[in-house]
Specification:
single chain; two-stranded antiparallel sheet
Length: 113
């Protein structure tokens, strides 16, 4: 499985926030730290916030923090949210891809993402 750069940086942002869970991080600060455009990071932050991974506050002293403890964030759920529109593996594609696993639909329904 290959992840998009969008997901890669989303993971990096969450890991950075997990390193200092009581601190709010501004998009500008993270953009500088990762060498990315602030606009690109803002889109990632918005996706993380809309899916409940981070909580954001505007204004002075604002920024983003983890919405819950890092040990309660499921990696599969995070990747599923950030890779929206892309199947995690070929067998999960709408057309089933070139999957050789029998009963792929049953497998997909059992996996908790």
């Amino acid at each position: 499985m290959r992840l998009t750069s969008f997901t890669d940086y989303g993971l990096r942002m969450l890991m950075r926030m997990a390193s200092a869970p009581d601190r709010a991080f501004s998009t500008a600060e993270l953009a500088t730290e990762f060498g990315l455009s602030r606009n690109h990071l803002a889109k990632i932050m918005q996706k993380l916030a809309s899916n409940g991974f981070v909580a954001t506050r505007r204004g002075g002293g604002g920024g983003a923090m983890l919405a819950r403890p890092a040990d309660q964030i499921r990696l599969g759920a995070l990747i599923g949210a950030l890779e929206d529109g892309y199947p995690l593996v070929e067998c999960f594609a709408a057309d089933g891809g070139n999957c050789s696993i029998d009963g792929q639909c049953r497998l997909k329904s059992r996996l908790r993402v």
